Amino acid sequence: MKNFKLLAILLLLLSLFLGACTNEQDAVSPQQDGKASDKTTASKEDKNEGKKGENTASADIPEAVQEPLKIAAIMQFSIGTFSSQYIQGVKEQVEAFGGEVQVYNADNDLAKMATHLDTAINQNVDGILIDHGRADALAPGVKKALEKGIPVVSFDNDLNLPGVTVIDQDDYSLAWNSLKTLAQDLNGEGEIVYVWVGGFTPMERRNTIYEAFKERYPNIKEVAKFGNASANTALDTQTQMEAILKQYPNKGDIDAVFAPWDEFAKGVTRAIEQAGRTEIKVYGIDLSDEDLQLIQKENSPWVATAATDPAEVGRAQVRFLYQKVAGEETPAIYSLDPHLVKKSDLPGETISMDEIGDHVKSWGTSDAGVSPWMNALTEKAE
Question: Biased-composition ranges for Basic and acidic residues (predicted)?
Answer without folding.
Answer: 35-54
